Amino acid sequence: MGGASLERHGAIGVITIDNPPVNAMSVGVPGAILSRLEEAGADDAIEAIVLRGGGRGALAGADIAMFGKPWPEDEPTLRHVIPAIERSTKPVIAALAGYCLGGGLEMALSCHYRVASRETGVGQPEVLLGFPPGAGGTQRLPRIANVSTALAMIVDGTRVPAEKAAEHGILDRVIEGDLLQGAVAFAEERAAGGPPHPLARDRTPVLDDPGIFEATRERLARRARGQRAPLACLECVEMALSLPFDEGIRREREVFEACMASAESKALRHVFFAERQARRVPGIGKETPARPVERAAIVGAGTMGTGIATCFANAGIPVRLTDSDGGALERALAAIRSGYESRVARGRIGTADAEARMALIEPVETMEGVAGADLVIEAVFEEMPLKEEVFRTLDAACDEGAIIASNTSYLDVNHLADTVPRRRDAGCVLGMHFFSPAQVMRLLEVVRTDSASPETLATVLALAQRLGKLAVVAGVCHGFIGNRMLEGYTRQVRFLLEEGASPVDVDAAMTGFGMAMGPCAVADLAGLDVSWRKRKADAHLRDPSKRYSAVADRLCERGRFGQKTGAGYYRYEPGSRTPIPDPEVDALIAEVAAESGIARRSIGADEIVERLLYPLVNEGARLLDEGIALRASDVDLVWINGYGFPRWRGGVMHWADGVGLAAIHETVARLDESEDYWEPAPLLNRLAADGKGFADLDRAARGG
Ligand code: T1G
Ligand code: NAD
Predict the structure, then answer these.
(1) Catalytic site residue 126?
(2) Active site residue 24
(3) What mean pLDDT do residues 16-20 have?
(4) What CATH number does domain 606-702 carry, 1.10.1040.50, 1.10.10.10, 3.30.230.10, 1.10.287.110?
């Protein structure tokens, strides 16, 4: 159990909170802080108190694992610590290092002063967990920083680096060198200066921009559709201006508690732990050595190769890029350069930084040029014979021990490993499935081949973190986790169109649900031609007895490949990405429906949502049963970070648990009677019969 200690440094009492790894306010910690505060207060030799986190110094706030669980009745909480700090007649100085977040920052804001080392980040990330700060953050921060700064921090949950925080008055000093020494020196100065020592509660908020609430409200209406917490944050900050301090604190707590009990918050907390759970991979432990990746190479400088090379450069890793088509290589470099130029123009990165990143990308003319790389990612066309050939050439060109990864979307990576037996036997082949645009999308599916060694996997997982990616491990199958599930989703889109929904109906239902984009708009953005070509190539494999919709094929036959041809499910004005409903498409769909003898009807949003999401749930259950996905929460992460599923709904499997698997099973079984592709997954049958959810399954797998 965590605690807190008190040490004397001359006339300064230093309280160190000790609850590794991030000094969260778990049961026992607030009580220990209170006791140390009392001791320091009673000690006449102490003139001022420094309060800091132990270890690397983080103060991560409330213990998230405790939410929704009962807090022992006689145990003090952070909300007892804060008034005790404010009552202290000796000045209390928060000394911050690493991260100071949530309740950690709220505690620091209640101190008389705050100092921090330069690499510290401060923030109120509560909104990302579905609630506003609940220990006074919404009332104190706007009294310390100006209102628009506080509002942005609380509504968006963004972290502010120490230097910026000092500019905003959140920190009184940024300490160079040893933090403890600097904090003690600062405390001595303030103690010598004598009272009064300022408290946030006594200050008046400064409304620096009178239009800020309205502007933020409008922004949230667009960006945070369907979510409650961001708006709740805004309302709480507004109260800092309209209510007396103590009344504001009371109201903040009410809003906090209501939000904490919401499905939205439950979902976001689920995602927080899911992200940390995803790093736990059977057979890989802290003791598994990860090899350093000092140099990388990418083969294929198309859409994906270009984005992946950018990822490496952004992470400071030298990367070689090659393509059999010299023109493609030139275009890739031009695209990367213009990407950086636009980031410079928008003030995201400095010119020198952009140049430095550009310099890390080295074009090479042949695949032999990848020699010396620790890891090579293949991103050529999605054709097995071509990839086999590329793998063989790479195997000959690469150093012994170098990892060869494929960015294939669907193909059998075990088969690819078999084409390079020596490297397969060394455990050095696997899939690294990036998502487009690779430099933006956070998801990386790490496809674990049967032969991949624990070291290779550990290396790639560590690399993913350096690249800023969220890695989810998937087994080998057609399409892995995400794309395999996608098939049922897009199939139902075409069926619904035939049955009477328009592209606008489908997209509006799904964005209304919270998806980042509707499926028809996504198809237009990604391009309809690639899957069309694939469907034509695989036509002989299709079961002719099963329902098939020709809607997408028919669009492609008319040259409607999506945005790139100015027309797909929608039409587009030249240079614009705004989808415009097109009567020609409506007529085309009606024609296809008539040919198939389908009577058209009007279809409501609820039915659209069910018809598109239930196949995801059903396929997700199959992936779990087959061991392709390690846990349901991994499936959630894939759909949130790769396919625009709303994070605040917790991912598709978490959402399904909320709907109830028995209810979903009933609908799936009913649809199965009249339409192909709906056969309930065995796992869905079992869980529904047992009255269980996917969370129960995950919990059992964790052994608790
Ligand atoms: N509570 C419980 N466990 C936490 C935790 C927390 N607040 N923060 C981190 N952990 C665990 C995490 O699960 C992991 O465990 C380990 O610590 C290392 O974390 C009243 C109500 C601090 C930036 O939202 O953003 O205060 O998986 O792997 O990448 O208003 O953790 O190893 O077993 O993420 O270095 C607000 C959440 C709470 C901060 C460190 N605070 N944490 O990142 O390591 S609400 C937050 C983070 C609140 C008040 C309210 C990050 C980090 P394990 P990690 P990291
Ligand atoms: P792309 O057509 O944009 O680029 C492929 C590049 O590979 C072309 O520049 C081509 O010249 C090059 N190439 C072909 N043969 C080569 C060879 N022998 N040696 C070197 N270069 C060669 O394709 P893409 O969209 O970037 O897809 C690449 C891979 O990534 C595919 O396997 C695809 O399935 C996968 N993928 C694509 C996406 C996506 O959204 N586009 C997403 C994830 C994964």
Answers:
(1) yes
(2) no
(3) 97
(4) 1.10.1040.50
